[in-house]
Amino acid sequence: MRTKRFDPKSGCAVEVTLSVIGGAWKPVILFHLLEGKKRFMELSRLVPRATQRMLTLQLRELETDGVILRHVYPQVPPKVEYEISDFGRTLAPILVSLRDWGDAYRETNPNVPSEGEHGDPWACAHSG
Amino acid sequence: MRTKRFDPKSGCAVEVTLSVIGGAWKPVILFHLLEGKKRFMELSRLVPRATQRMLTLQLRELETDGVILRHVYPQVPPKVEYEISDFGRTLAPILVSLRDWGDAYRETNPNVPSEGEHGDPWACAHSG
DNA sequence: ATAGGTACTATCAAAAATGAGCGTACAGAT
DNA sequence: ATCTGTACGCTCATTTTTGATAGTACCTAT
What we know:
mainly alpha, homodimer, 6 helices, DNA-binding
């Protein structure tokens, strides 16, 4: 019983990719994971404007899509680490070009809000 | 009164780009327009599974985002041509890499529907 | 007089995505 | 004994997006 993510309207390959990275928080998550493994609470603090529910959902989808790995340590209190997979790393150049284009777009289009307008300077990723 | 497209949750630059190309039919439209100007009905026939309403909406958004140009000929019956702008052309490499990644993803993930499953072989774009 | 083509608009409805807030098990610290 | 922290799951509500359907103005062809 697949969600709509896998019933792309146009049947277009671009949509397949977008169904993988197109979630509201997925790009942010992925950029953070590109820097290294993170625990759940760690991500939650890095992306404070995402509810934990959303974080969970997006991480689950990223996991079933094979772009991240989930390591569960059988401890109490629980410990779960998220890591980007090798396959997930192939998304890196795409994410970067999407980010760069978005930046360029903001320069030409002044009415597009910039990062940090919601008080979250770590919203996505930096150019450096 | 901006739609949500410009209130990206994470404030992330990637989301800005996705708000421009992320519509259900925008990638398909853009691939077709990369091949040349098209009239409205022409597009409607090229993307038959999109309702005309959707086509109109998506074209309007693409226009206000500056990635396509709309030429209205003061005739009756009306004639309107859509053309990709120079700025819109800067999206081409991104669209191509999104498509290629989606194709690769489909190879590794067999339960992802392929193009043409809805009887629309021209759904998005071809590799050649 | 009727029908067909063009590029839409308008209205209503459904589906999909996201948000808010609470609950949970258990260990360690106080 | 109480409190805090972890990594969620569950339910309800709202926002956002998409679809279905019908209608419009005007010209040409039949």
